């Protein structure tokens, strides 16, 4: 039950995952009889088990749903059918207005498919349609129409940091801000409900608080695929990027398919609003072809073709010119917002990923109507610490050793972590990495983490995430990461049962000036507690700036 806008429709829909093995394997004559019954008399089903038969099955199931709908009293039903990586499975979706009757339609479709190769298809269809017509109507969708401005943020990497930056800027403007993310529901800076609220329930819970004047919602792929988006629209949308993560789940096997999922968020941005898109990511930039809103791109390159194209279309752009974050409009001089050196999150501009997050947050805040000087003040006061951005690029000092704690849950995230570690490493010092992986990634992606980690650091150790094995064993994950490290010549890796244990081991062997980075997913609070117990302190902007200057003169 998709309660709101989703991959298939901009409104609530039923999603069926159907085993079409029977239809794929029935004799051609039986398939032709079935085709005639559902109004595809001229169809050529092809031989059993062929690609032609699969294409026929996709057409036939779509027609079956419409035929059952028409016979049960519903006309002009929209139907979407998509293949999956399994040739014997397809996904069918159709919109719904009445919960019980829509669910009964799904059961009726499955019953007809399961009964093949039935000889009396007419009787089977008739009985199924009667049950659908007799079913209770049921309640309607629970999708909310927001009454306050909503900024919706999605993407593979950076969405949590970007949404937190936007929320901080809006609070700097004096607004009571509600925002939802993977950590929970926050109202005016206070955590009111802990948990992963990056799905549709997060938006609903934020808007349920009557004091909220401005909402920021983090929208993850899982929520879009399994429940839909909880709001009918947003005022400003942000897509940070699309990179390899969570592939092989819920029928999403490629980056292009993942981009389709992420594009749902800007697709429902209202016509007068703004869709903020990463101009340096071609899959994100292409989303401007499916939006009703006005395009606003961000790019680190002021001469980017994406900026030229969007300005020619009457849109806006945010970029970096001579070290300043600037906004560019058609036929106008750039408008200066803030110097990168004054934005703590960017490490004086050295963190490429956080420069992009800053550009995205600047674009969204301005698009939402927040004054430029307030945006600048908010960006200057947002810090990479456990107070403002817990678990994302948090810097600590333990003696003369720097510790960086970050989620870094995929290839792009790990590359970003290694980049900022290098940004604060003194000449001659080492990078020590606590490597880890979540179990629901594909084998090649887990191996790639091992390869990137071993290639980008001087010492690497594995710290396992016991609560995020997700069907795998510790030994299996260990072997995959070791295989990736071996590809770049690193054969000896120590393994530890927890993230805390890996951190303790790495800090224990670190020398003054060394930088220890930890991919921290499962034990963030325990990691913070361990750092405090060992006299670690969070780096303030001045301390962090001093480390950058020491590393780069």
Automatic annotation (TrEMBL):
<dbReference type="InterPro" id="IPR013221">
    <property type="entry name" value="Mur_ligase_cen"/>
</dbReference>
<dbReference type="GO" id="GO:0016881">
    <property type="term" value="F:acid-amino acid ligase activity"/>
</dbReference>
<dbReference type="InterPro" id="IPR004101">
    <property type="entry name" value="Mur_ligase_C"/>
</dbReference>
<dbReference type="GO" id="GO:0005524">
    <property type="term" value="F:ATP binding"/>
</dbReference>
<dbReference type="InterPro" id="IPR036615">
    <property type="entry name" value="Mur_ligase_C_dom_sf"/>
</dbReference>
<dbReference type="Pfam" id="PF02875">
    <property type="entry name" value="Mur_ligase_C"/>
</dbReference>
<feature type="domain" description="Mur ligase C-terminal">
    <location>
        <begin position="391"/>
        <end position="518"/>
    </location>
</feature>
<keyword id="KW-0436">Ligase</keyword>
<protein>
    <submittedName>
        <fullName>Mur ligase</fullName>
    </submittedName>
</protein>
<feature type="domain" description="Mur ligase central">
    <location>
        <begin position="153"/>
        <end position="364"/>
    </location>
</feature>
<dbReference type="Pfam" id="PF08245">
    <property type="entry name" value="Mur_ligase_M"/>
</dbReference>
<dbReference type="InterPro" id="IPR036565">
    <property type="entry name" value="Mur-like_cat_sf"/>
</dbReference>
